[in-house]
Structures are given as structure tokens and as C-alpha cells.
Design goal:
By secondary structure, the chain is an alpha/beta fold. Helix content is 47%, strand content 13%.
């Protein structure tokens, strides 16, 4: 099908990349783009970057939005108290063929009552609040984006670009999406059910000089090594029980969980960058067998290692 309209909704305190990322993807693919806000004119992001909203909601027919993209940002909590803005989003969503939110933009869709009974995602930091304040919504903070009927919700910032590429591929085909990905130096598509979590996100990191820093650095220097609790305790100069308690309290996960996540991330890099067989990667990074790696991948990443390799290497073919 031919590219259609995409309308972005912004507000004071929007997240710059929530707008700019998907805007670039859709723009490169030839869609007609429109940025709207409560009133036409300059709207400042949460970092102060001003963007021109071409129209205010009063001058924008809700029936002509095409795909509706509601961005997030620290200003979303104030924006959802704006009755006029929420009402316009509700009216536009009723007519739009697709309704999407980026990051915490899900709060605006939720406030409009559009997500009740739906499975959605948002930035992992905001997932608990979204679930508490809108109990009729099923919030899953793992995937980078989720589709539930006409409604698509995404995790933080760059996930909006992943979603935009997926929609371009759905509309215009794989070759068109690949052209955009190459132009913007992006992976063609991270699958929506891929986990948004990685070591820098799901764990705290100890300060330089802390004994736990030595432990963490040792794990990342050679993820495939034997990292038993006794081995790690020896590095820290602590008893195994003391290390287990302190690591879990300060890092946020037990040592064994941290080691597994670090191994998964190392395997992800190897799958994306090298042609080594899955069995070889599994042995090198401490999983022992390919089957063990596949089970861990499905549980943590949400897809098979072979699928991860195919999708992450696609943009370089």
C-alpha cells in the first residue's frame, strides 16, 4: 500500500527521541507527517529543545490523523490532566487505523480509556505506576513493543524506531523497511517480544573501588568462565553468604542471575557479529550446550538464538 498519514501528538516536556526517532523512520519511507499539540507553535521537550507543532488540536480533524503516535516524556503526567488533549486523543483514536504510544505516552492512551482490557508495555521505570493507576490494563514491561488489535505500545525511546520500522515493513514491504534501516544505520527490526532489559537497565552498578565492582568486572571480562558463588566471594574477599546478601541487595539480583544475564548479552553480541555455530557460542559463554542456550534465550530474550541472529544481522546483508 502507499504511505499514508502519521500524526504525532506532543506536549510540554515530551521526550525528544520519542518524536524524532519514529519521525525520521516514517519520513524516510515517504509518509505524510504532522505534529500536533494543544496549540500550534513551539513546544519544548524535557531537555528544552523546541519543536514546532504545526497545528493545534482544535484545528486538526480527528478523522484525518492516519496512524496516531502519542509520544512520552516527563511532561506526560501533566499532559494527561489536560482534558481537551485527552478528549482529542480519544476522538482521533476512534477513527485511526492504528494507535501507538512511545514510552510513557501509554499514560495518555490509558487516561483516554483506550487501553482497558488490553496488554500493553511502556518504559520499564513507568510500568509499575501504569499498572497501579490503571488496573484494567495488563502491563507487561518485558517486550520492546506489543500489538493488541489496532493498538501498539512501546518501551523506552529507541523502541519507537523499532515499531516504526515494523509498521513500514507491514505497509510497504521488507525492502522498503530495509532501505530505511540502512539509511539510518539501524537494525532492520528488533522483534517486539525481545526483552527491553539489559545489564545497564535491570541492575545497579557498583562504584569504582567497591569490592562488588571487582566481581562485576570479572564477570564481564570473561562471562564464560566458572563464576560460582565461592569463586566470586574469593574475588571480593567476602564469605559466600555475605556476598550473596550484599550483591543481591546492592545490584538488585543474585550473583547467579547476574552471571546468566551477562552470558546472554555476550552471546547476543556473538550471534550478531560472528558466524560461529550456536553450539560453539554456547560452550564459549558458559552454557555448555546449544539446548541450554536456547532455553535461556527463550526465557530471557523471548526468541530463539537463530531468530535473533537473523533479525540482528539483516541490515548488514
Amino acid at each position: 500500500m502507499a504511505p499514508s498519514a502519521v500524526t504525532f501528538v506532543i506536549f510540554d516536556g515530551y521526550q525528544t527521541l520519542d518524536l524524532a526517532g519514529p519521525y525520521e523512520v516514517f519520513g524516510k519511507a515517504g509518509y505524510d507527517l504532522l505534529v500536533v499539540a494543544e496549540a500550534a507553535g513551539q513546544v519544548r521537550s524535557n531537555t528544552g529543545l523546541p519543536v514546532l507543532a504545526e497545528r493545534g488540536i482544535a484545528e486538526t480533524d480527528p478523522a484525518t490523523t492516519g496512524t496516531l503516535v502519542v509520544v512520552g516524556g516527563s511532561g506526560v503526567q501533566s499532559a494527561r490532566r489536560n482534558r481537551d488533549l485527552v478528549a482529542w486523543i480519544s476522538a482521533a483514536a476512534a477513527r485511526a487505523p492504528r494507535v501507538t504510544s512511545v514510552c510513557s505516552g501509554a499514560f495518555l492512551l490509558a487516561e483516554a480509556g483506550l487501553l482497558d482490557g488490553r496488554r500493553v508495555t511502556t518504559h520499564w521505570r513507568q510500568a509499575g505506576r501504569l499498572a497501579r493507576e490503571y488496573p484494567a490494563i495488563e502491563v507487561d514491561c518485558e517486550p520492546i513493543f506489543i500489538r493488541d488489535g489496532r493498538f501498539w505500545t512501546t518501551a523506552g525511546v529507541t523502541a519507537g524506531m523499532d515499531l516504526a520500522l515494523a509498521l513500514v515493513e507491514a505497509d510497504l514491504g521488507r525492502d522498503a523497511a530495509l532501505d530505511v534501516a540502512r539509511e539510518l544505520v539501524l537494525y532492520l527490526r528488533r522483534p517486539g517480544n525481545q526483552s527491553q532489559f539489559s545489564v545497564p537497565l535491570w541492575s545497579a552498578q557498583p562504584a569504582d573501588g567497591d569490592v562488588l565492582r571487582k566481581v562485576v568486572d570479572t564477570i564481564h571480562a570473561n562471562p564464560g568462565s566458572r563464576h560460582s558463588i565461592a569463586d566470586l566471594a574469593s574475588i571480593a574477599g567476602l564469605s559466600p553468604r555475605h556476598l550473596q546478601r550484599r550483591f543481591t541487595k546492592e545490584i538488585g539480583v543474585p550473583p547467579a542471575v547476574y552471571v546468566e544475564r551477562a552470558r546472554i548479552e555476550a552471546a547476543q553480541r556473538a550471534l550478531a557479529e560472528r558466524d560461529d555455530p550456536v553450539e560453539s557460542i554456547a560452550r564459549h559463554y558458559g552454557f555448555g550446550t546449544g539446548e541450554t542456550l536456547r532455553r535461556a534465550f527463550h526465557r530471557i530474550v523471548g526468541i530463539a538464538p537463530s531468530d535473533y541472529r537473523d533479525r540482528f544481522r539483516t541490515a548488514y546483508t
